[in-house]
Each structure stands twice: as C-alpha cells, then as structure tokens.
Hints:
Elements: E1 2-3, E2 14-16, E3 22-23, E4 25-27, E5 37-40, H1 53-57, E6 63-66, H2 68-77, E7 85-88, H3 92-104, E8 112-117, H4 122-135, E9 140-143, E10 148-150, E11 153-155, H5 164-176, E12 181-185, H6 188-192, E13 201-206, H7 220-228, E14 236-242, H8 246-254, E15 259-263, E16 272-276, E17 282-286, E18 292-296, H9 303-317, H10 322-329, E19 341-344, E20 349-353, H11 358-369, E21 375-379, H12 389-400, E22 403-406, H13 416-432, E23 443-445, H14 449-460, E24 465-469, E25 476-479, E26 482-485, H15 488-504
Parallel strand pairs: 4-5, 5-6, 6-7, 8-12, 8-13, 9-12, 13-14, 14-15, 15-16, 20-24, 21-22, 21-24, 22-23
Antiparallel strand pairs: 1-3, 2-7, 9-10, 10-11, 16-17, 17-18, 19-20, 25-26
Helix pairs in contact: 3-5, 4-9, 11-12, 12-13, 14-15
The protein binds ligand UAG, adenosine-5'-triphosphate and 2,6-diaminopimelic acid.
Amino acid sequence: MMRLSDLRLPLTARIVGDATRGVDGVSQDSRSAAPGDLWAALPGARVHGAAFGAEVLGRGIDAVLTDVAGLETLRRSVDDLEGVSIVVVDSPRAVLGGISAQVFGTDSSSLKLYGLTGTNGKTTTAFILDALLTRLGSTTGLIGTVATTIAGRVESSVRTTPEAPDLHRLFARMRDAGVDVCSMEVSSHALAQHRADGAVFSVSGFTNLSQDHLDFHPTMEDYFAAKAALFTPEHSRSGVVVVEDAWGARMAQAATIPVVTVSSDAGLDPDHLLVREQGPKRFILHLAGGDSIRAASPLPGDFNRTNTALALAMLHAGGVSAERLEAAAEGLEVVVPGRMERVHEAAPLAVVDYSHTPDALDQVLGGLSDSGAPLVVVVGAGGDRDSTKRPAMGAAAARRADVVIITDDNPRTEDPAAIRATLLEGARAAISDGTARVRPDRLLELTPRGEAIARAVEYAGDSGALLVAGKGHETGQEIDGEVLPFDDRKRTREAVASRAARAATGRVQD
Length: 510
Ligand SMILES: CC(=O)N[C@H]1[C@@H](OP(=O)(O)OP(=O)(O)OC[C@H]2O[C@@H](n3ccc(=O)[nH]c3=O)[C@H](O)[C@@H]2O)O[C@H](CO)[C@@H](O)[C@@H]1O[C@H](C)C(=O)N[C@@H](C)C(=O)N[C@H](CCC(=O)O)C(=O)O
Ligand SMILES: Nc1ncnc2c1ncn2[C@@H]1O[C@H](COP(=O)(O)OP(=O)(O)OP(=O)(O)O)[C@@H](O)[C@H]1O
Ligand SMILES: N[C@H](CCC[C@H](N)C(=O)O)C(=O)O
C-alpha cells in the first residue's frame, strides 16, 4: 500500500482531496480498474478516460490520476467527488510509468530486462533470446505480440507492449514467480506513449527500420525518433544495434548510451561482424575483442541469421561469455507462431508468415524464390493502419512472386475493396515499369481470404512454394468491428489436404 503523498510526482502536480489515501495498484482503463487502484483517466485520440468517471468511481475506486481537462470532466459528470482523491498533472501518460513502478515496487526490481525495438524482427528475436536464456539456466519472462510468458506459463497478449500499469503489474507477477530475466518487445507506439516508462533495460536491441505505421507517426523521422528514445539512459543501460541500412547507422550514432554494432558488411566496420557460412542458416559472429560464436539460426529465412546474431550479441552485452553462448545456441530449436511457419513441408511448400510490411514481404519472398520453384503469394493489408505502405506491399509481391493473389487482411473499419485496389495499383505499377516477376494474367484479386488461400494452393500445385502473408499467428479476422474466427495456418493446411485428397481421386484442376 502506498500513500498518494509518498509518490514521486512532478513539482507542478497537485492532489485534490485526501493526500494520505493509500493505493495498492494502478490501472488506466475503466474496464479493468479495481478497488484499491490509482485509476489513470487519460486523454486519448478517441475519448478522454475521465468520461468513464461516474461508472468507475461508482465501483468503489477512490483515487484518480488525470489532467486538468479530466478533473473538469469528473467535476461535471460525477455527482459526488467527496471521498475521492485526485492527482492532477499536466501529462498523466508521462508520469504513469514512474508511478506504476513505485506502486508495484518494480522500480528497483531484481528482474533483468532485455528490450527489442525495430520495424521487423522484434517478436522473433525476443523468442530466440528467451530460448537462449532458458538454455543458460534462467527462469524467464517474455512480453510481446504473440504471447506473454511467466516462468513457462503462457498467457495471451493484448498488444505488443502493454500500457504502463499493466506492464509493471506483469513485472511484479514475474518477480513473484521467480523470473530473473525478461525479454520484451518495445513498439514505437509504446515509446511515443510512455508505456515502457519506469522500466530500465539492461540491454536493448535494434533490428531495423523500414516503412510502417505512418498512420501514427507523421514521418519516418518521427518513427525513427520514437525508437531512438529506447537508446537513452532513461530507458536502457546499453544497446546493440544492427547496422544493415542507413537507419541502423543513424541509430548507433543517435544513441546516448554505450552501444555495439552488428553487421554483415565489413565495410561498415561494425563492432561484431556477422559472416554467413554455407547453407541457409549457419554463421559466425566475430565479436569485438577477438572471440567468436559459431551458430545456426533456429528459423528459416536469411534475416533470421541476423535476428539470431542480434540475440547473441545482446546476451554477450549482458555479460554472457562467447563460449557459453555458443554452447547455448548449439542445436537450438525455436518455434515462433506464424513466423516462417512451414505448415506443409513439400509438394507444395506452404509457409505462413507475419510479413505485413514491404520490406518483410521482399525479404521473405526473396528467400523462398531461391528454391527455383514457382512462387505463389496471398497478400492483403490491414485497415485503419498505414495506408501508404499498401502500394509498396503490392509491388514487393509482384516483383518477387510468379502468382500474386491480393485478398483481405483485417479490413477493420475500412472498405476492403479500396484496400485491395491500392495493393493492386502497386503491383500493376511494378508490371508497368518492368520490374515485376508476375505476369499480368497471374495477378489476381480474390476474396474471401479462405478462397484466396484455396486458389493459391491450386496454383502452387505439387512443385510450387506458397506464402500466406500478413496474419501469421492471428486467429481472427477483424471486419467492421467484428472479429470472425480465421487462422491462416489452419486454412492453408485444410486447403493443401483438400487438394491432396482430390489429387488422389484424380479430380485436381490445373
Ligand atoms: C494508436 C494507439 O496506440 N492508441 C492506443 C491508445 O489510444 P488513445 O490514446 O487514442 O486512447 P482512446 O482509445 O482515445 O482512450 C483514452 C483512454 O480511455 C480509456 N478507455 C477507453 C474506452 C473505454 O471503454 N474505457 C476506457 O477507460 C483508454 O484505456 C484510454 O486510457 O491507448 C489505448 C488504451 O490503451 C489503446 O487501446 C490504443 O491502441 C489502439 C487500439 C491500437 O490499435 N494500437 C496499436 C496500433 C498499437 O499500439 N500497436 C503497437 C504495435 C505496433 C507494431 O510494432 O506493430 C503495440 O504496442 O501493440
Ligand atoms: N530482421 C528482419 N528483417 C526483415 N524482416 C524480418 C526480420 N525479422 C522478421 N522479419 C519479417 O517480419 C515479420 C514480422 O516479424 P516479427 O513478428 O518478428 O517482427 P515484429 O517486429 O515483432 O513485428 P510486429 O511489431 O508487427 O509484431 C516476419 O514474419 C518476417 O516476415
Ligand atoms: N502490429 C501490426 C500488425 C499488423 C498485422 C496485420 N495483419 C494487420 O492487421 O494490419 C499492427 O497492428 O499494425
């Protein structure tokens, strides 16, 4: 239990009502606030949390953190504020992480944190880190898009990076469950919204930056700046930055904490040099200082060598020797749901992958096309998300695949046909400028998504390769506010099995 008057607050903060009131939790959403919590009524893009004041305060919650606008809303809409203590600050989001850390006692936690940011590769690298840490003997925690785990117990995740009160509550639960190390994804939304405040990462890693989220960030510069905030003393003690593009080089320069760089380009003079060995997965990481780690990526896709090297370099920065890391990486097996997941091994090879950016599509299809087999892709784009990435996604698919089937992802509240039209526009532009691999008659638009997958399986035939892109681990499709059950992995397996059954009876069409 902590008294409001004992919280470290900004000098401009004031407490209306009883300042000695005690709180033993923090929450920020009316739907999850519980008695004993300091409930943060936050201003948002859609609504001010204080609008839910009457309902929340009627449930026995008697401590609120808000801003002046929130205080006014509460005064207007709640009959009786007598007996309610209200902490008023200029920017409640900006203090929420620090306050949550104090209330949950996670500000001086013994939990060691590894943080990951970047456009693509956070989830995968966090899973690899977690698997390595487990092999190294740690009791681990994991926080990210696909799942949250606490000492081996798996829970579902609501978003990539939880809101600050939920995050610190999780840290406290991890501490109580004996977790000593946690690997965590830190999205740019989270950094911009102070969701990771009050957490200090021992080592943070940067994977890459490419186009995404330009609905939330006005420019790539703003997106970069949000991610760069992780590499400051407020958030991290040290960092590892992958330098495979100009953004990586800039991140290493912008960092105001000690960072080491990892790259496969010796010309960039990285601290750690990644040298690919024969075969699709093996590599040597030559560490600054002379040691090296020989390892293999546990997942297919050339980019997963980079993700694995990043995980190893982060653990090395966290104090684990090259020798122990090489032993931990030996024969490592990692399955990341919906990331390069081979749902059918051959005839045809069918892969489900969460590629929902132009760069991810380009890289994944580039890798799959190395096999020489005809390559089919099913692709769409999410509604209410960066619309400017859609033409580039269509173009990437057209440049890399022999058959492109444009379909729906999660249209959310947007018109699905309009989303598909933008992808088609990009694919057609690639055909017009001569950079496409797909023939015009092999560029198709097909819905619903299940039909698109079934048709793609027909095109892949017995000898092709198929990528079902964009939804990865997701088990639902969001259409106009409703989430309908849909799992790419299940649908793809079913379509492959159905084709095989028809082939067995000689009823397969070409
Ligand atoms: C752009 C963005 O991230 N917005 C998040 C933000 O919304 P907001 O500030 O506009 O808030 P709002 O919806 O207006 O609500 C204001 C306040 O009222 C509260 N409220 C709202 C409704 C209600 O019934 N009761 C209630 O208390 C909300 O909890 C909030 O505190 O705060 C809300 C409350 O936590 C989030 O739900 C919302 O996430 C939206 C739904 C979202 O889709 N976010 C995605 C894009 C996101 O965060 N993605 C990244 C991963 C990106 C990646 O790397 O791929 C992530 O970390 O998950
Ligand atoms: N290092 C990488 N470089 C480029 N693409 C990658 C890399 N790692 C993964 N990808 C691609 O990006 C997709 C998403 O990967 P992952 O889920 O690991 O990233 P993420 O950063 O967690 O994404 P999100 O924030 O959207 O959940 C993968 O399915 C793969 O297609
Ligand atoms: N974390 C990403 C996931 C996108 C996945 C794709 N299936 C979509 O719905 O756009 C986002 O929220 O933008």
